[in-house]
Amino acid sequence: MAGRPGGRSRDAGRARSIGGRTDGDGARRRSGAGQLGGDQVEGRRAVLELLSAGRRPVRRLWLAEGLDPSPQLDEIEALAARRKVRVETVGRARLEASARTDAPQGVLALARAIEPIPLDDLCARSRGEPFLLVVAGVTDPRNLGALLRSAECAGVTGVVLARHRAAHLSPTVAKVAAGAIEHLDFAVVGGLPAALGVLADQGVWTVGLAGEVDRSLYQLDVGSGPVALVVGGEEKGLAPLVRRRCADVAAVPQHGSIASLNVGAAGAVACFEVARQRAAAAG
């Protein structure tokens, strides 16, 4: 094993929500660099994690009328009572008209938007060795949501997102991520190549994923030390400058006929390879 070197969604189509005017990826408009989103959360698992994590205030919680009883709904109501969040029962039509996902499951919450942190702090906040995910150009909110869910489950400690031309934490991302956004720290950067330079200065080994290269991710020692996986966009993968700034570039090996993995699937496999190697090194 090698060692270390030195589609259009409903989010885009809505102009307003119960929380106010939104931008193209579903985040409320606000000044400054904090346009990350996460203020409207829909779906039972995502809202349950929002309440359970308790990292940010919840301003409003809607449940649709006539929902069948379920343990998950009971837990949502119990957590809301514990957090002193008022639960409002509203008509299904009203809730669905305010929703920005296709299936809110009768549950919708408004919360304080997730605030990004400085890039330098992602490493400082990590428990143990930093394990980061750098998302370089993913624009489909479902892909980003799937990436974040897999990343959190694999033990990623922080996520780096581009400020422009990239999906942020829209309601669709929050729902597909199934609550993962409540347990991850995020940095939003204006330039990903410069951000990779900052991570290198902090001793983080950056590994880009590119399906066309010969080197296998499984040949790299990603089980020790600070590491950041870098995933590119759906159509073109890693941009040339981002790729050049990565300390290493590797592929997830494939054995079938299809040319490449979906970015969410490739990112999930890569995250769990890091997790597997870390567990083996620790055990």
Detailed description of the structure:
This protein has 283 residues and is an alpha/beta fold. It folds into two domains: 40-111, 60s Ribosomal Protein L30, Chain: A; 119-282, Alpha/beta knot (3-Layer(aba) Sandwich), CATH 3.40.1280. 34% of the residues lie in helices and 18% in strands. It is built from ten helices and twelve strands. The strands form three sheets. It has a six-stranded parallel β-sheet with strand order 9-8-7-11-10-12, sandwiched between helices. Helix 6 links the parallel strand 7 (131-135) and strand 8. The longest helix has 20 residues, at 263-282. The two termini are 18 Å apart. The relative contact order is 0.16.
Number of domains: 2
Largest sheet: 6 strands, parallel
Strand order of the largest sheet: 9-8-7-11-10-12
Q: Order of SSEs, N→C?
A: HEEEHEHEHEHEHEHEHEEHEH
What integer value in Å does the Rg equal?
Answer: 19 Å
The level 1 CATH classification of the largest domain is Alpha Beta
- Let me know the CATH homologous superfamily of the largest domain: SPOUT methyltransferase, trefoil knot domain
Structural class: alpha/beta
Mean pLDDT rating:
87
CATH architecture classification of the largest domain: 3-Layer(aba) Sandwich
Write the layout of secondary structure elements.
Blueprint (H helix, E strand, L loop, with lengths): L9 H4 L2 E2 L2 E2 L18 E3 L1 H10 L4 E7 L6 H12 L4 E4 L1 H7 L8 E5 L7 H7 L5 E5 L5 H14 L3 E5 L8 H6 L8 E5 L2 H10 L3 E5 L17 E5 L8 H6 L2 E3 L12 H20 L1
Helix pairs in contact: 2-3, 6-10
